[in-house]
Design a protein that fits this description.
Layout (H helix, E strand, L loop, with lengths): L1 E19 L2 E15 L4 E6 L3 H4 L3 H15 L7 H11 L4 H19 L3 H4 L12 E3 L4 H13 L4 E5 L5 H15 L4 E5 L6 H10 L5 E5 L7 H10 L4 E3 L6 H9 L5 E4 L1 H4 L2 H13 L4 E3 L6 H11 L5 E4 L12 E3 L2 E2 L5 E2 L8 E3 L1 H4 L4 E4 L1
Helix pairs in contact: 2-4, 6-7, 7-8, 10-12
Bound molecules: magnesium ion.
Magnesium ion binds next to loops.
Length: 368
């Protein structure tokens, strides 16, 4: 039985503002959910509501978390199917806060099963997860300098934020970055819905000589007609990110041939339960996926890395947000190796927790 739920709104300053075509972020303002069972065992989850993508804010996620918590008290935490449906019945959308609750439930159940979360989800450690690092959308010279710094730090994969108008500026950025980092570095790009169809066409054909692995979200997330038109002609594989929040979106995009790849994020799908459905629908369509993040700490990223190990069609890993935070308030959980592969512990659950002294800095909301 779920006995008690604690909710915290936390704040961590970023090393420097994170800039995408949708705007800049200076702090990660994340929401933490701790779900205790009647034995006093708890699972812990984290979400990062990104207002320009989710339409959710920290204040909103905390308010909804209280409502959800009241409904979950007394329920069996093992019945995740029922609990996810209960949350969806109570509140439409709000994938971010639902993902924190879902993450806490999976952590709790895996802990009680005595298994690391990846094993609880049926995964294995056969797969090596190597993260990229992300270059913000800035002036060309600043982006080149950042890309060079990341390569010096040992990153072999860079994700470049573009989506500026006109798209020709983006081609110039990518040309300069490719020249600076050489041919052996993998470059992937993300336009974050910044282009029109015409911009996207120019930019995608303009970047064809610079060996781009894939491009995320070229046009507006709702513009499925132009997404499909671009997939039909693009020389670079196109990945749906903002266009696919959940499994329903995944099915629509696949039916409409509106993407070559899907970027799964627990913060979009509403957590692990629905993310598994996206991965399964993609698998059925012979489609590969990326696992991405918002600005979660190492706690949220730990849960994501465990999830990543459970799906063979997740080939791309964009799990770099802890590297952008000015402090690491997390105990246990994943660590990054020198080659930026991710080391996953055998601790039951996702293995991560917040340092109690860190959580004590923020008001605690308790629902019993
Ligand atoms: Mg993206």
């Amino acid at each position: 039985m779920i006995d008690k739920i604690e909710i915290y709104g936390i704040q961590i300053e970023l090393n420097e503002p994170f800039v995408i075509s949708k705007g800049a972020l200076s702090h990660a303002r994340n929401t933490v959910v701790k779900i205790y069972d009647h034995q006093g065992i708890y699972g812990i989850g984290e979400c990062c509501p990104f207002r320009s993508i989710h339409g959710e804010t920290q204040a909103g996620t905390i308010a909804f978390a209280k409502d959800l918590a009241e409904a979950l008290i007394g329920k069996n935490p093992e019945e995740i199917h029922n609990l996810v449906h209960l949350m969806n019945k109570m509140i439409v959308g709000n994938a971010s806060i639902k993902s924190a609750v879902d993450m806490a439930l999976y952590d709790l159940n895996a802990k009680n099963a005595g298994k690391p979360l990846y094993a609880f989800l049926g995964g294995s450690k056969d797969k090596k997860i190597v993260t990229d690092n992300t270059v913000s959308l800035l002036s060309e010279d600043k982006m080149v300098a950042k890309a060079e710094k990341f390569v010096d730090q040992g990153f072999k994969i860079l994700k470049i934020k573009i989506g500026d108008r006109p798209g020709t500026n983006d081609v110039s950025r990518i040309k300069a970055i490719r020249k600076a980092v050489g041919e052996h570095i993998t470059l992937r790009v993300d336009a974050n819905q910044g282009w029109s169809y015409v911009d996207a066409k120019k930019a995608l054909f303009g970047m064809v000589d610079y060996n781009i692995e894939h491009c995320e979200e070229p046009v507006h997330a709702n513009n499925i007609i132009d997404q499909a038109r671009l997939v039909a002609i693009s020389p670079i594989p196109l990945m749906a990110d903002e266009a696919v929040f959940n499994h329903v979106d995944a099915l629509r995009v696949i039916r409409n041939k509106a993407a070559d790849l899907i970027n799964i994020k627990l913060g979009k799908s509403g957590g692990i339960y629905n993310a598994m459905k996206i991965a399964a629908i993609a698998e059925a369509a012979d489609m590969n996926c990326q696992l991405g993040c918002f600005s979660e700490s190492r706690l949220g990223i730990s849960a994501m890395a465990h999830f990543d190990l459970a799906w063979n069609n997740i080939l791309y890993h964009d799990l770099d947000s802890p590297l952008m935070l000015s402090e690491d308030p997390v105990v246990g959980g994943i660590t990054y190796n020198a080659d930026w592969s991710i080391n996953i512990t055998e601790t039951p659950g996702h293995g991560a927790d917040f340092d109690p002294a860190f959580l004590a800095r923020f008001p605690k909301i308790e629902i019993k």
